[in-house]
Specification:
About 50% of the residues lie in helices and about 15% in strands. It is α/β, with parallel strands linked by helices. The radius of gyration is 26 Å and the shape is globular. Mean pLDDT is about 85; it is low at about 175-180.
């Protein structure tokens, strides 16, 4: 664990000055963030060490007291101001006094120390804490910015089986305001529960609480990984029955390319949330939802929007005008592969009512749902619509 009081021992921060004395020095630092504007709250999750440079101080709406108040409210670890010509020359005494009252650390460093050296050293200190000398595998492999070779050496020294197939999963809780702590406790509880389960199973693993998510890494191929995630989902659900969460996961050939696995797991989590799945979902490289969500913005997003409107607009207009549910009916029907019984059961309607709606859909769209290509086009349009 890296605390504000430990910063003075880093080589790049030998000239660090604590303006608030010992106040706030015991605060934990989870990561670093360099502000580019005065409105940075959307990128903050709590525990960040905030760096404020000259360009921010020169912005017309800069208010030091407001900055300190906001940082305390967002539960940051502390603030480091870059000082010198064109940067900060004077820190408000009222801001210093307010920070002391709230046990919050304000610090300064000379502007001419390369910020990249500071952030890199702080990042490494977070990854490899003094107390153990051991990095968190996930923090180092996914967020550490390490080279392929460095990750291999690090994981080999730890004894983690990095060369075998891996599963990287994310237990995601919907983001809520900072004041709503029960959900935050749920993430920590899930972390402890998963650690105990892996230990009882004698399986190699790594966990990491990352903002409102719990990351899990363990060796395993598709069937074995799915079984592990299903068991963890069941146990978390039993332990926190009132808290809503979803699990998305991704497979990897080894533990050296987890950055892409992390992005794929986030996509899988998004799909699980959109479908409100009551089970874990593993990223499918051949999946239609995955194809849509991983498509670069530069590759025809406007064209896709026009396509969806062309296919579904007549149904949307009809539903809005008549307060009907034709689009919902069509989506469930396609999800159930055209099975009338399962579709009517999911919609809680009679089969004859379902047949009437499907016939009406065909009339409005000028198509036949018996045609395979038509069903694919409609399903593709509905899937794009759900993620747009």
């Amino acid at each position: 664990m890296l605390r504000c009081k430990d910063l003075r021992y880093l080589t790049s921060l030998q000239k660090l000055t604590y303006l608030t004395g010992k106040s706030g020095q015991d605060r934990l630092i989870r990561w670093v963030y360099t502000a580019e504007t005065t409105d940075f709250s959307r990128w903050i999750r709590g525990g960040e060490l905030l760096f404020i440079s000259g360009p921010v101080s020169q912005s017309p709406d800069f208010d030091m007291m407001r900055l300190v108040r906001l940082s305390i409210r967002l539960n940051l670890a502390g603030i480091i101001f870059l000082c010198g010509d064109g940067y900060f020359n004077d820190i408000s005494s009222s801001a210093i006094r307010y920070a002391k009252e709230h046990d919050f650390a304000l610090m300064t460093i000379p502007w001419d120390i390369p910020l990249v050296d500071i952030t890199q050293e702080v990042g490494r200190a977070i990854l490899m804490p003094r107390e153990t000398g051991q990095p968190n595998i996930l923090q180092a492999a996914v967020f550490g910015g390490l080279s392929y070779a460095d990750k291999g050496s690090l994981l080999q020294n730890i004894g983690y089986p990095f060369g075998s197939p891996q599963c990287l999963a994310i237990v995601g809780y919907q983001r809520l305001p900072m004041a709503q702590m029960p959900r935050r406790n749920a993430v920590a509880n899930a972390d402890e529960l998963c650690k105990m389960w892996f230990q009882t199973q004698n399986l190699p693993f790594s966990t990491l609480v990352h903002y409102d998510q719990l990351l899990l890494l363990f060796p395993g191929k598709h069937a074995a990984a799915a079984k592990v995630l299903q068991e963890l989902y069941k146990r978390i659900k039993e332990d926190e029955s009132e808290v809503s969460f979803h699990i998305g996961g991704a497979l990897s050939e080894d533990a050296l390319s987890l950055e892409q696995s992390y992005r794929n797991a986030q996509v899988a989590l998004q799909i699980s949330r959109q479908r409100d799945l009551q089970k874990p979902y593993l990223f499918n490289p051949c999946g239609l939802s995955e194809f849509i969500l991983t498509m670069p913005e530069s590759k025809g997003s406007e064209h896709m929007t026009e396509f969806v409107q062309h296919v579904l607009l007549p149904l949307e207009i009809y539903d809005k005008k008549n307060k009907s549910l034709l689009i919902q009916t069509l989506e469930v029907y396609l999800q159930e592969n055209g099975n009338l019984l399962r579709t009517s059961n999911r919609l809680f309607i009679h089969r004859n009512t379902l047949k009437y709606r499907l016939h009406h859909i065909e009339e409005i769209c000028g198509c036949s749902l018996e045609d395979a290509e038509t069903r694919f086009v409609l399903y593709f349009a509905l899937t794009v619509r759900n993620y747009s």
